[in-house]
Amino acid sequence: MIKTPDIIISALYIVAIVSIGLWAGLKKKKEASASNDYFLAGKSLRWPMIGMALFATNISCLHLVSLAQSGFDEGLLSGNFEWMAAFTLILLALFFAPFYIRSGVSTLPDFLEKRYNRACRDWLTFISIISAITIHIAFSLLTGGIVLETLLGIDMYTSVTVIAVITAIYTIIGGLRAVVVTESIQTIVLVTGAVIITIVCLHKMGGWDAMIATLQEHQQLHKLKMLRPSGDGSQLPWYAVFLGYPVLGIWYWCADQTIVQRVLGAKDENHARTGALFCGFIKILPLFIFILPGLLASTLAQKGLLDISAIQYVDAFGKPAVNSKGIYTLMITQLVPTGLVGIIIAALLSGLMSQVSGALNSISTLVSFDLYKRFKPAADEKELVRMGRISAGIALVLSILLLPLLNSYSSLFNGVNDIISHIAPPITCVFLFGIFWKKASAKAAQITLLVGSLLGAAVYTVNKLYPYTPLKEIPFLMMAFYLFVACCIIQVFFSLRYPMQHTAVSGTLYWKSPGEPLQDKGWKGPGNYKILSALLLLVMIVLYIIFK
């Protein structure tokens, strides 16, 4: 249980965030239309806000808790999900962001309708809403509830409901501007809290060299390796990382409404590109401030400096085991001094609230623009905003109802990526072909989305109902790659079978060549998107060489 000063710090933080969110959201620009201001912040966002908001929307309480769990169990391996994101953010900056900005779309389903047809738009809208409710909101609420129940002794569903309602207040009232302003603050708080617990763990351990010595003593130096061989039991061999992650990453960072909406609200193309690259540089940090503490916790436990008896148990075979879901809570309660605990809890709340607020805003945008306006095209600006607020409230209720089902995963982080691996392939496929291949046809995209999604759902269902089939032996990232290849074959075959008949609009919605988006000179000096892209690419290659 935490002490009174820490509770006060956490409570003051919540009050401050809600106040700032309401102030930012209600301070509307006169020249912006009601819906444009509410859903896209009046297209006024600058690159620092975009970069920090992208990071905050991506990093939630789920990441703080589950990445520490993966660090405790497997070392730095899950850092691939953070570092590989930098490569897809480069793709977002170079190819996708300028495309979306120039096309003037409000949502990504809107783009699919203009490039393909209405059926593709409807399908992506449905998938985007479901994934936002499940992946971005429900999993985050679940993780936050588990931690807050342990720390504060409050029933999980009670604490989750309270935090969800508080977040919904400024998100539903204030729109995207409130979300982005609060996310920028929350990114700073979240990173500060994570840095504090990393420093505390390193100090308790006696430094990096002491951790290395302990790993060597227990023959666990492999935990420092990012790229593992096949058959090491991790379900994440090196080839799966390089083949499978791009399928997930391109969907998540370049084609998911919840993430890309921050880019769509950019002031201009340069701010959109630089914001995405800024986020790519920030994504280097999670390995050191989210995953490394979990690895340090395992070495601290081995040296007797961290008591993990509270999460130890005897499994069905009579062998001792550890429920590592609770390792982050143990680190907070045993290693962090009073006062700093309040900041750590504020960081956890930041991750939870930013993820939920970002997803709620995206859901309200999708429902208003892609569903409600279709059936009621005469709807005025205020009506669209009102429907967006109602849909956000409904989505929040549905997310809370999903919590008992999602709690069955032993590793919440793996649970999220397992679901994404079966959702992403057809969406990644139709976006890539739609943007880069003139002949990608509407009929082919429609078939690819339908068949690919049904195929992914079928594989996921079989694995859950029959966990001992050969399919279960395939790493989930490789499953994503195989599903993607199948979707590509479907897309190409049916594009040739049913050739695309371009309209005046769709004929402009693809790059004529990969070099076309790079013709824009961008800003002068070190802020130029080409210089930043090359620098980020070089940094990531060097890091992978060091930690291979």
Automatic annotation (TrEMBL):
Mind telling me which residue stretches traverse the membrane in this protein? 6-26, 47-68, 83-102, 123-148, 160-180, 187-205, 236-254, 275-296, 340-369, 390-407, 419-437, 444-462, 474-494, 529-547
**What PANTHER family would the database entry show?**
SODIUM_GLUCOSE COTRANSPORTER 4, SOLUTE CARRIER FAMILY 5
Stated family: Belongs to the sodium:solute symporter (SSF) (TC 2.A.21) family.
Which UniProt keyword terms apply here?
A: Membrane, Transmembrane, Transmembrane helix
Native source organism of the sequence: Chitinophaga ginsengisoli
Can you say where in the cell this protein is located? Membrane
Q: Which InterPro entries does the record match to this protein? A: Na/Glc_symporter_sf, Na/solute_symporter
User: According to Swiss-Prot or TrEMBL, what is its membrane topology?
Assistant: Multi-pass membrane protein
Going by the entry's taxonomy, the superkingdom of the source organism is recorded as Bacteria
- GO annotations of cellular component type: plasma membrane
Q: What is this protein called?
A: SSS family solute:Na+ symporter
Family annotation (CDD domains): SLC5sbd_SGLT1-like
Q: Which GO terms describe its molecular function?
A: D-glucose:sodium symporter activity
